[in-house]
Every structure is written in C-alpha cells, then in structure tokens.
Amino acid sequence: MQSFPLQSVQLTEGVFKNAQDVDLKYILALNPDKLLAPYLIDASLPLKAERYGNWESSGLDGHIGGHYLSALAMMYASTKNTELKSRLDYMVSELARCQAKNGNGYVGGIPQGKVFWERIHKGDIDGSSFGLNNTWVPLYNIHKLFAGLRDAYQFTNNKQALQVLIGLGDWFTDLIKPLSEEQIQTMLRTEHGGMNEVFADLYEITKDKKYLQIAEKISHKAILNPLIQHQDKLTGLHANTQIPKVIGFEKVAQLNGNKDWSDAAVYFWNNLTQKRSVAFGGNSVREHFNPTNDFSKMLESNQGPETCNSYNMLRLSKALFFDKNDLQYLDFYEKTLYNHILSSQHPTKGGFVYFTPIRPSHYRVYSQPETSMWCCVGSGIENHTKYGELIYSHNQQDLFVNLFIPSVLNWAERDIKLTQKTQFPHSNRSELIVSLKQTKNFNIGIRFPKWANNVKIWVNGKNQAFTAKSSEYILINRKWKNGDKILVELPMQTHLEYLPDSSNWAAIMHGPIVLAAKTDTANLDGLFADDSRMGHEAKGKLYSLESAVALVADNRGYLEKIKPVNLQELKFSYSNLTLMPFFELHDARYQMYFQTMNSEEFKKNTENLKNYEKQILALEANTIDKINCGEQQPEVDHNYKGEKSDSGYEEGHFWRNTKSFISYQLTNKNLEGRNIEIAVLDKFKQDNLSFLVNDKPLEIVSNDNKIIKLKIPETENSTQNLVLKISANNGVYSPRIHQIRLTIKP
Class of the 393-424+429-489 domain? Predict the structure, then answer.
C-alpha cells in the first residue's frame, strides 16, 4: 500500500476545498521577511522586516518559519499556485544565506542560539519538560525548521533546501558527538518535537547510515521503554510532547526493522484512540493527558484538546496505516479529520483554533495573521494544505478509495483518472467515475467504514454483491473502461459515543460526524485573538454546568428523543436545541457532550451540580490570574524562572517545588488583585519558605498547611505586573506547589 503524491489529487467543490482556499489566503497574508527575521538576527545579518510579536518574539522565535516552509510546500503541491513556490524558494535562499554566514552548518532563530548550543556541546545540560538551560523548547523549535526543509525538498524538489537540511543535520551530529547517552537522554526530557523522525527521513533521503544512528540515539527511552512493555505511563505527561516521539519510533522501525519499536507505536496509538480521545478525535486537557478513568477536569476546563495533538495523531495514523495496512487507522483518521481538523479553522474569516473545549456552553478562539503565532497556528497552516494525502492509495496494480471527499485523482503511472463526486456527509452517496484511454483490468477497493451498517455499491447501475465487512475494503475487480461509474451508498445512523471513563457524558453522532448545538453568542471575549501571551485561550465567562442540557429518558431511550429536522443539512432537534455538524458551528458557544440519565437521576444531579458549580464559579469570579504549576503553557505564559526545581504529577495535580527559588509573573488586570493564594500538596514549616512580590516581602495572612494566603503590599496595588518569588530556606525543599492564584478577596 502506497500513498499518492499531493500533486496527483485535486480537491473539487466542498467543505475541504473551501478550507484549503481559506488557508491559502491566511498563508499569503503572512510576511516571509517577518518570519525570517529571527534567523537573520541570529546570523547577524540586516533585517528586511521586523519579526512578528507574540510567541515569535518571546522565546519561540523562528518556529512558525519552519511550519511556513512545510505549508508553502504542501499547498503548492496541492494547488500549483506559483506565488507559493516563489515564497518557498525565497525563504530557502535566505536560510541558505544565514547558514553560510554562520559557517558551521547551523541556521536557527532561537534567541542567543550560538551561546545556547555551545553550552549543550560542552555537556552543560539542565533539562525540564519545556525549558532546556532556561531556553523555551529549543529542540522543538529547530525541529520545525528540519521538517520544513525536508518538506520543501520532498514536495517541490527544491535542491537547495536539501543542501541546507544536510548542513543542519551534520551540524547537529557534531553538536551531540561529545555527549554521553545519559546526557542526550537528559536533553530529551525537554519537548523536542519529532527530531528522531527527521533524522530517519534524512537517512531515507541520503542513505547515509549516520543519520539513522542519530535518529536511534535521540529517541527518548523514558517514553519508549514503557511502551515496549505495554505499560501506560502517560497520565500527567504533556500530550503533544509525546506524540511526535512516537511517530519517530514508528519511522525508525520501518527503516531498521525493529518490531519492538513499531509495536510500541501501535500500543501508544491504541491507548490514545481508545482510552484518551473524545468523540471528535482530540485528546488532553490543559495540554496534558488526563487519567483514563476521569475526564471530569476536561469537562470543566476551558482548555480542552489541543489541535496540535490531532495534527500529529493524523500523521501517526497515516504512518501506521501504510505500515500495517489496517483500516482501523483510517476510521480514526476520518473521524478526527472531519470533527477536529476541519472544525479548527474559521470557514469564512480564517484563523486557527488552539483549544477545543468540551465544557458545555463554552467556545473557541481563532488566530489572526498579524497577532497570533502559537504552535497551533504553525500546525494549522499545514493542516488544510494536505487534505488529498489519504483520500486514495494504491499498490502496484490496484486503486483504493479511503475517504469520501470530492476530488479528482490522476494516477499518471497507470494512466488512470478517477473523479469522485459527493456531498458527503450531507449526502450518504458518492459517485466514482473512471477515465481511461484504454480498458484495464484491476481492482478498485472501496473502504467499508466502521460506522456504516449496510454499504451498497452499483457499477453502471448494477448492484454488486460482496463479502467484505466493516473496516475492510470492498474489492471490485473487472476490466474497467472509460466512463464506468461506481455508486456507493453509505447509510449513517445516529448514535451516542460516551467518554472513555465510563461516565454518563455522551456525544451525539451521525455516522462519523459529531453533532453539537449553538447555545449562546454572548460573552465571546477574545473570539478573534489579540497579540496577548494567552490570546489563544477562551477566557470568557464560564457558564454553569448545571445549566447544560441533559439527555433525559426514563427508559434509556435517549436516541428516540433526537429528531431529524433536515437530513440534507444534517440538522436534528432535541429539547430546545438544534443539533448540527460540529465542523459547521462557529462564532458561538456550543454544547457537544450531554449527560444521559432518567428523570430521578436528573433531579438529584442538578442539585449536586448546582452546589458544586456555585463554589467553583465563585472562586473563578474572585480570581484575577492563576498559574497551574508544573504545566508547560501556564508556566511559560507566566515567565517561569527557577533553580534546583523539579516538577511532576501526583495526587491528581501537577506540581513544582524548589530547593532554591522559583518565580512567576502575574498580571494584575484592572489593578483589582489584592491577595495571592498558594495551594500546596505537603505540610511544611513556615520558616522554610519566604515570599516576595516585586522584591518586597509578602505578609502571610493565613496558612493551613494546604493553602497559603498572602497579602500584597499596598505599594504594589497599582502595579499591573507582579513578579512573585518563592524561596526555599535552610537547605530544605519547598512543598510541592500545584496552583497560585491572584485574587480580589482573601
């Protein structure tokens, strides 16, 4: 089984073609010279434009530039738009100029990169989940450039991109040559994207075995070894840090034949898709893997699954499909493509979504080209360039239809053209038209989706009998002639998909499509993001879970309550709600998950939720700013600094402690904050801790050994930025701190 190049598949009118067109406008709205600025700064070359702000000038400088190369390459392959190719060639030539100026093969936009990498080369390594030598995920950052150069070569045959890539790969090889295995593994504790994958790709391109050896050497054993043993050690880990590593494990296994590594990737995929993913295919809460038996924090949070996770899960699913030829990978790919990836871009105004909350009556935020430089913007500009990558596949002789997306396939090597006409999922039919210059005998395989109960197929109007089952191909073998038509009918049923934790929360689905309801259009604060550090988070008012609509039926006949309104538009009704495909729902609060219960359970549950939510919402209303300690984004967003500090996940909480100091910057919005509350997991002696805000001592108002309440000095009440420093005294570790809040009232 092999993929077709993007150049062979052209999208035609439909939701995916629209998404591609909207993404193209966004890509062209970005300024290559601004994206190149961090690289020119590092190479001490004159700037042609000032760099972008937001994440591109606060520590992750240059990461969007790597993604941009990938997006240009894949969008050019998909559309043949010459402006894209011109921009790509220009960016590669500028990167080559930076590399030549540096003189050692290195090119990058990482702040103070030369100093940073020299420390690594000498073995001076202090790694944590997101900080390597107090630098924000530098390996993750440079991985984007590796991947962008690879894609520029593979999708557009840009030879200069390959030269720069090889130079960069050789520089990295020399960089880590003096390091011991232990030092390399310490370095890999910090998020590093798919560095092992790109070195495996370099080996595949050049056939130079040193690159495959590097790929094996920079594979993170702390993640790999438990997966090989089929041990689930994932809870509490930063989700998108792990998925690219596993893509690399699978890629290396394909090249060196290591079955254990490939089995590890399969185990990981099964774990995530069956135990950790929600109905739209996404996973994680506040960027981390939640316990498999408790999705309650995801239901409560405004930070639901991250789009980058699904971007990488599609890449892993695609790799495993071509390795294992198992259609279960396509079932997940399809579900995630329609419900998460397609929904993660605004369909008319453009802009990409970072978090997709499942909290009832919350909403999503969309990026803007001039203000938003998040990781999910980088992967977002790629997501909608490559919809043609898996609609079809082939072996030497036969052709397979995997997805039901309107498109035209040109299989030049076999002189076969296949046109797919469909309005799926708004129609349950797809028509395939074969175009040939001469008759040919081969199989056309039609995927039998997991969600379809009774697929029917006609060829030139004649019904076709078959024995294939769900998640298999229906093979049609004949001597095909020009103009032959295949009609595929894919009956879709409405069903409930429950959360994996066995709770009573369920999503309503029609076939593979998640249905959701618009609930409100008020309080959509920051719907289109500004350039603030946390602009990607929907910070508007949290609506009480008590007010969420539930599916109530005394006989458990929940589906009987869901009535079709317009099947061509996939609209249904329940209670006072209109359900529609989630990927079509934008600019509004929504409800995607519903509790299922009988009337007695509903009454009792409503009262319990009312009391619980009253406490939670009161706490949030009293909070000006908060930090979830030990979590990547909250700590980066609050300018974390520290020495002799550890972090982890225990007792259902992330935490951080220190034997020296840690500090964060809190934002005192509207200058209302008067107090700081610090939640800890351990008992401690008060003499062993000290607290400063803007270098002034904080008064300890109360301490019950779990919540420390501090009063901000009056001199700092008019200051918007409050730098909190927590110091450990007497050579004793601080307690494990899991949350810090800036509050109005004590």
Answer: mainly beta
Instruction: Using alpha carbons, list the distances in angstroms from residue 184 to 136, 139, 222, 371.
Output: 17, 12, 12, 36
Convert the pLDDT of each residue in 54-92 to its tens digit.
999 999 999 999 999 999 999 999 999 999 999 999 999
Six-digit token pair at 67? 């993604």
CA neighbor of 712 nearest in space, from 703, 723, 704, 628: 723
DSSP 283: B
Where are the strands (E) in 186-294, listed by range? Answer: none
The structural domains of the chain, with segments of one domain joined by +, span: 31-218, 393-424+429-489, 494-606, 624-743
Structure tokens at 204: 């595949």
**The predicted structure's pLDDT at residue 154:** 98
Same fold yes or no, 393-424+429-489 and 624-743: no
**3 state DSSP class of 130:** coil
| Three-state secondary structure call for residue 44 | coil
Give the C-alpha separation, 101 to 103, whole Å: 5
d(C-alpha 719, C-alpha 714), whole Å: 10
Q: What is the pLDDT of residues 190-218, one digit of tens each?
A: 999 999 999 999 999 999 999 999 999 99
Q: What angle do CA 7, 140, 123 make, to 5 degrees?
A: 135
Rounded CA separation 689/467 (Å): 71
Residues 202 and 196 sit within 8 Å (Cβ to Cβ): no
Contact predicate 97/91, CB 8 Å: no
8-state DSSP, 274: I
Strand partners, 596: 551
Secondary structure, 3-state, 305-341? CEHHHHHHHHHHHHHHHHHHCCCHHHHHHHHHHHHHH
Distance from C-alpha of 541 to C-alpha of 314, rounded to nearest angstrom: 32
Which single residue is written with the structure tokens 């989700």? 239
Q: Are 640 and 663 in contact (CB under 8 A)?
A: yes
pLDDT, residue 496, reads 98
> To which residue do tokens 């530039």 refer?
65
Strand 9-11 and strand 699-703: the pairing is unpaired
Q: Is residue 526 pLDDT above 70, yes or no?
A: yes
How far, in Å, CA of 554 to CA of 159, rounded? 67
Q: What is the C-alpha end-to-end distance of the chain, expressed in Å? A: 63
CA quadruple 209, 212, 218, 220: dihedral sign: negative
**Which of 244, 240, 362 shows the shortest CA–CA distance to 306?**
240
Spatial contact of 688 and 729, defined as CB atoms under 8 Å apart: yes
Chain segment 276-331, per-residue pLDDT in tens: 999 999 999 999 999 999 999 999 999 999 999 999 999 999 999 999 999 999 99
The superfamily CATH assigns to domain 624-743 is Galactose-binding domain-like (2.60.120.260)
Instruction: Tell me the helices (H) and strands (E) count for the chain, helix number first.
Output: 19, 33
User: What is the Cα–Cα distance from 609 to 505, expressed in whole angstroms?
Assistant: 14
Q: Give residue-wise pLDDT tens across range 12-25.
A: 999 999 999 999 99
pLDDT at 129 over 70: no
DSSP 214: H
Which residue in 536, 587, 656, 531 sits closest to 287, CA to CA? 536
Nearest Cα to Cα of residue 100 among 51, 170, 167, 153: 167
Token digits for 218? Answer: 């920079």
Torsion of CA 130, 132, 138, 143, to 10 degrees: -80
